[in-house]
Specification:
heterodimer, A: 116 residues, 4-stranded antiparallel β-sheet, 11 strands, B: 112 residues, 6-stranded mixed β-sheet, 12 strands, 0% helix, globular
Chain lengths: 116, 112
């Protein structure tokens, strides 16, 4: 089972460049999330989506954009990269029904982004 | 607001030692509580959860009890193994919400 797949795994950007972090899930989950993980700071929610065509801001949305045109895909866009966006980015998805662990968030392996 | 505070790391133990990682939270109502584990080079995996007061979550020898009176959800394991070396995150989902709030993570290293 693929689960949540993120690409790329690593990327170095120059200040001012743009890029899209890809996230796709094959579990037919309605909910999808983007988090960033800074050293010693835990995970902060950037954006989330409760279904195709619906997105909402999390705690730290500035400098990012998202779209959700399909259930499977939830790309994260950085338009003008800044050093403050150096971080590890995690995508996650979650079902909106079920029992036990199946109702909780599944995470991708992460994208390590460095802005220089 | 909602927040999670975890025990400062890193934590280093010898194999077969007893483990406790403290976690306390602030939330209104009745949040669901979680422990996630992140092994080196991987994403987060759900380790255990509890959805109401006095529930005990358990998995892979780890346990945590939802204590409403002390707003705590401490992670314990009786005998750790080298393979338990990882970063552990305590998290909550506020009642009625779809988002997780994470603590800062605790890095655990187990020496043989």
């Amino acid at each position: 089972n693929a689960g949540v797949t993120q690409t790329p795994k690593f990327r170095i950007l120059k200040i001012g460049q743009s890029m899209t972090l890809q996230c796709t899930q094959d579990m037919n989950h309605n909910y999808m999330y983007w988090y960033r993980q800074d050293p010693g700071m835990g995970l902060k929610l950037i954006y989330y989506s409760v279904g195709a065509g619906i997105t909402d801001k999390g705690e730290v949305p500035n400098g990012y954009n998202v779209s959700r045109s399909t259930t499977e895909d939830f790309p994260l866009r950085l338009e003008l990269a800044a050093p403050s966006q150096t971080s590890v980015y995690f995508c996650a998805s979650r079902a909106d029904r079920g029992t036990g662990f199946n109702t909780e968030a599944f995470f991708g392996q992460g994208t390590r982004l460095t802005v220089v | 607001g909602n927040s999670v505070t975890q025990m400062e790391g890193p934590v280093t133990l010898s194999e077969e030692a007893f483990l406790t990682i403290n976690c306390t939270y602030t939330a209104t109502g009745y949040p669901s509580l979680f422990w996630y584990v992140q092994y080196p080079g991987e994403g987060l995996q759900l380790l255990l959860k509890a959805t109401k007061a006095d529930d005990k979550g358990s998995n892979k020898g780890f346990e945590a009890t939802y204590r409403k009176e002390t707003t705590s959800f401490h992670l314990e394991k009786g005998s750790v193994q080298v393979s338990d070396s990882a970063v552990y995150f305590c998290a909550l989902r506020p009642q009625g919400a779809q988002k997780l709030v994470f603590g800062q993570g605790t890095r655990l290293t187990i020496n043989p």
